[in-house]
C-alpha cells in the first residue's frame, strides 16, 4: 500500500497526519509515494496494491489509470461514507461531444450498476451484468469508438442484454 503523493503535506490535512503517523507501524506501507509517481504508475502499475490520497490527486490518478485500461468509458467508480454509497463512472470525463449521438461507451455505467447491486447483496444479479459486459468486451465484435470499433451505445447495450439471457430475442 502507498499513501498520497509527496510534496507539501500541509494541504493533506488529516490524511497527511494519519499517513505519516501510521506509516511506521504498517509493514510494507510507503509514504509518501515515490516521484515521479505518475510515470511509475504508467510504466509499472502492478507495483501498487492500494493508493490512498486526497480527492484532487485521486481525480488526477483515476483519469490516468482509466487511460491505462481503455479510457473513461470502461472504469466504474464507487465512493463510500459511513452512511452512503455512490456508484458512478470512475473517471469524471464529461465527453460532452457524445451527447445525443449514441456513441458513448456504456461499460462504466453498467459495471457501476453491477457494483451497486453487489453492495445491496444482490450478488447473482450483479454477476449477471458484469459477466455479460465482460463477455461482450472479450468477444471483440461489438466495440464502441473509444475501444477501436464502430458500434453504437445501443449496439453495445443490446449485446449485453443478449448475453444476460442467451435466448432473449430468439
From TrEMBL:
Top-level division of the source organism's lineage: Eukaryota
GO molecular function, one term: oxidoreductase activity, acting on the CH-OH group of donors, NAD or NADP as acceptor
Keywords from the UniProt entry: Tricarboxylic acid cycle
GO cellular component: mitochondrion
Domain Isopropylmalate dehydrogenase-like: 2-160
Any single GO BP term: tricarboxylic acid cycle
PROSITE patterns given in the database record: IDH_IMDH
Oligomeric and partner information: Heterooligomer of subunits alpha (IDH3A), beta (IDH3B), and gamma (IDH3G) in the apparent ratio of 2:1:1. The heterodimer containing one IDH3A and one IDH3B subunit and the heterodimer containing one IDH3A and one IDH3G subunit assemble into a heterotetramer (which contains two subunits of IDH3A, one of IDH3B and one of IDH3G) and further into the heterooctamer.
Protein name as it appears in the record: IDH3B dehydrogenase
